[in-house]
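lol so apparently i was supposed to do this last week
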Amino acid sequence: SAINDAKRAAAHKAVNEYVKNGFKVGVGSGSTIVYAIDRLAERVHKEKLNIVCIPTSFQSRQLLIKNQLTVGELEIYPQLDVCIDGADEVDSNLNLIKGGGACLLEEKIVASCAKIFVIIADYTKNSEKLGDKYKKGIPIEVVPMAYKPVKQVIENRFGGDLELRMAIAKAGPVVTDNGNFILDWRNFKQDVDWDIINKDILQIPGVVESGLFIGMAQKVYFGLEDGTVKEQE
Ligand code: DER
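anyway here it is w/ D-4-phosphoerythronic acid bound
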């Protein structure tokens, strides 16, 4: 499909341009990263690259192992050369909404440890303002016992509405790789200073992490419908 071709084109370009021999590479989660892991495996095999990959979820860990890539942990490699990850939406300032796959906590930790944070995305993620394209809401990871007061505090203080993310292949709410719940915050005001709002939200007791990645990404590769790749810095 055009979207999968776009994901693949962006993923391959990012891996080709940012991964070098000897690198410690943070590897994101989701569907776009699958193409990046394929290309990493191809390059390691063809070029005999010696790289270590640090996963950001059970999903990316399993994919790395399946592709016979060397898996590392932050405990051994706390400084990474690059982190490559997808996004649910990218605004004109390269601020991101992430967490559509409920992997935002480890993704933000690993991204924060990398010298360069590179995003790979198809054209449907490219927007002017956060909320223009991604309508499922800003994911916020919370300690399960606190999800109701956190929901109320954010709705009262910032507006919109937050919904506890329910699982599909499991009864009850989604439980993240780190044992937490996800609240999806919809109908939020778009003309706001996301850096300030994000910092306020992270102070609310019970909030573990938000899917607002503000000022973190240095580069985005957008796969376009015509198969080309647009780069934004
Ligand atoms: O859940 C996540 O944070 C994913 O990285 C998400 O932001 C992008 O997933 P996608 O590549 O499947 O759209």
